[in-house]
């Protein structure tokens, strides 16, 4: 047996907090060393924080990371643990994201990332340079390039995140060159369903390449990106560890590396592929770490045995319904995003929500309260502030709903009418108009929304509060929002949640945490209450149809006639003319509302599609509908 204990440390980093990030990691390093961990993994760009974006262009930022890495090495010099952590370096004028190997107080090597994602929410190809196969160099006297490392327990192959996300991965040549333990340090942003994708992809890599593969992910929110943490260890395709997500911390598992080599010897296909590769490729260079210079201590490790006492029978499994998993994952992600934005900015003292008595603002408040319950469980409501600003069109039902939920959550609540200010603003607008011009009904609606937004900003300035924007993705997509009004805020919490998802999440929360305030909100049809008897679905279209159009047109990139065909098959209760009218209306509103999106606040990213122009869907502001809605 050749037992090795692998530790996965998910660290919640802040971009630019180089030494604070290292101190967080050192706390885990000390704990893992005391627990007999042989190899410890930390996330991608752990030292400087991820993603650094254009901050990486500052030499001082990169240089400070090297000093922090040297500090990490000195602080762990007495530990019998190999540490692999992410750092950015400037080498020969270029920037590289690297996996740094630290052991015995020294930086033993730097392996640069080869695959640079420049798609979806990633822009690494803009500022970073890629490593390449068989790259060999020295950086400040440290081996820099495509290397594997031999320690007294075996051979490791460090790699960074995206390097595993392709079949043509560096892992292949490194395991064929003798690596037994592949260590992937990652900063993989959360998307709904991505955990299953990662698991399936990584377990396939471990099986295909007949190696033990350890993967660790970053945890925490940075700007609008959310990282769910956790990690895996797979031995030749066998699951050994599935670390808990959505928390900062570490977990470890012991594996027998002799088993990895034995399975290679039994797998004739792998051996044949290896032999074919070796006839046309040189091996990846190996950095030898002499036992006289650094040794691990593994004598206390025990062979991994099943907790349920059987090597043949499956262990106990807790079944969680898919709907529950989905709702909890989305709520965890958004709550973490609110909390990390609040804490890492270090300029806010409380969190404020303008409640309308409707679904969107209620869900935003509940998400903020979810985080506050973790941060200050004895009095979560003390971190929050809620304001209800009625006009003559606001109903008694929505006021009661807003008041009730705040009483139930113990959130400070104030009612501040905007009616007098509304009248003054109407008069001011009329004074600006030329003869023959009139205040439109839409203007009257927007004035109300803008008064509320202005008041929230004034509160934020005065109280140091984080003003949360409460709009959903469906209504933003079609411009059913007011620039300078309900589109305002410092952080858009649910801006990437379709309206149908908002409603499902509220239904779920009412089931697991029954509140009278939620019930009161849900019993009234959704509408902005900016005019008499407003109902959102009557002014737009049924939200189930709107969200279907949104997905098919904006995410799947289908033509309007294709969208209409599919929507018609989804909702057979609608006539063909009705469907065609909805699709045409959606496409026109969608393509003529882009100018609004670019003025929206930073939003939390949870899926493959969002309307943050700096992230997933980048469309020109000035565009025509001609290509999509040709006249027939």
What would your notes on this structure say?
The model has no long low-confidence stretch (mean pLDDT 95). Strand 19 (384-388), helix 10 (396-409) and strand 20 form a beta-alpha-beta unit. Helices cover 39% and strands 19% of the residues. The strands form five sheets. Strands 15-14-11-10-9-8-17 form a seven-stranded mixed β-sheet. A six-stranded mixed β-sheet has the order 5-4-3-2-1-16. It has 20 helices and 22 strands. By secondary structure, it is an alpha/beta fold. The chain has three domains: 3-288, Carbon-nitrogen hydrolase (Nitrilase/N-carbamoyl-D-aminoacid amidohydrolase, 4-Layer Sandwich), CATH 3.60.110; 324-538, Rossmann fold (3-Layer(aba) Sandwich), CATH 3.40.50.620; 541-591. It is elongated, with a radius of gyration of 28 Å.
Q: What is this structure, in a nutshell?
A:
The protein contains 20 helices and 22 strands. It is α/β, with parallel strands linked by helices and 632 residues long. 39% of the residues lie in helices and 19% in strands.
